[in-house]
Design goal:
alpha/beta; Rossmann fold; 6-stranded parallel beta sheet; about 65% helix
């Protein structure tokens, strides 16, 4: 497993510090010099600047100097490789990936916009990915957005209630939007903004608080879903009529598998 850039940076610093300590102590013992002179000898040896030594070197001291020079060159080479690797992995790759994603988003037509990648949004993303639905995500948390980018999910890091962000997501060309932001107020504002930009947009919104479904519909949502209410009803039926729910689960699973099989056959043909 490849270490993080921060961990690799600490390794370089530790190697340099260790070499300086070894060199300083070595010159103090081999040439009988002070701490400052030993440090001076070590630094000019590692940097290969060619300044005059403060003490004459014995054959052993010369061999020790050769070892310090070779070690310093090795550490410098390693540091340069790590720096180039960091620029390629952390900088260039990130820029290339972002540019490719921006082009992909710009080409989208008839896609679905998922606002929010929390627990509900993650489930929506998973289903859209499994069904190979064309979609993109708007997520305001940078860490979560970065995770989605790593997973290959088209994502825009920003506020889904912002008109510019929705325009960047292609709200005019989109066919639908799933709004599952953190609270009902944000969902209402996102729906109002989206509906103003695209009156034909089909909008499904998550209802969090009891009684908020009507507000979301008045704001412009076509359908509302309350995960808490649905979860509670399902739990009650699992307790009261477990056999019925098990049968429905089997039917739904079979229906999903049949659709997927039919889709695969069409793709094969």
């Amino acid at each position: 497993m490849r270490k993080s850039p921060l961990a690799r940076g600490w390794i370089v610093l530790i190697l340099v510090a260790t070499l300086i300590v070894i060199g300083t102590v070595g010159y103090m013992n081999l040439s009988n010099v002070s701490l400052i002179d030993g440090l001076y000898m070590t630094i000019i040896t590692i940097s290969t600047v060619g300044y005059r030594e403060v003490a004459d070197l014995s054959p052993v001291g010369k061999i020790f100097t050769i070892c310090i020079i070779l070690s310093g060159l090795g550490i410098v080479s390693y540091s340069l490789l790590e720096a180039v690797s960091f620029l390629i992995d952390g900088g260039v790759k990130r820029i290339v990936r972002r540019k490719a994603m921006e082009k992909q988003i710009a080409r989208m037509v008839g896609h679905i916009i998922v606002c929010g990648a929390g627990q509900t949004g993650s489930s929506v993303i998973e289903q859209f990915t499994l069904t190979k639905t064309q979609f993109l995500v708007i997520e305001h948390q940078e860490t979560r957005a970065a995770e989605l980018v790593q997973a290959g999910v088209p994502v825009i890091c920003g506020d889904a209630t912002n008109e510019d962000i929705l325009t960047q997501a292609g709200i005019v060309q989109a066919k639908g939007m799933v709004s599952c932001l953190e609270n009902d107020a944000q969902n209402v504002y996102a729906i109002l903004t989206a509906r103003g930009l695209n009156p034909k947009l089909y909008i499904v919104a998550r209802s969090i608080e009891k009684g908020s479904a009507e507000k979301l519909k008045r704001a412009g949502a076509d359908k509302t879903i309350s995960p808490n209410e649905i979860g509670g009803i399902r739990m009650a039926y699992l307790m009261l009529k477990p056999h019925v729910m098990s049968f429905l689960d089997i039917v739904n699973r079979f229906d999903d598998e049949s659709r997927q099989l039919h889709k695969n056959q069409l793709n094969t043909n």
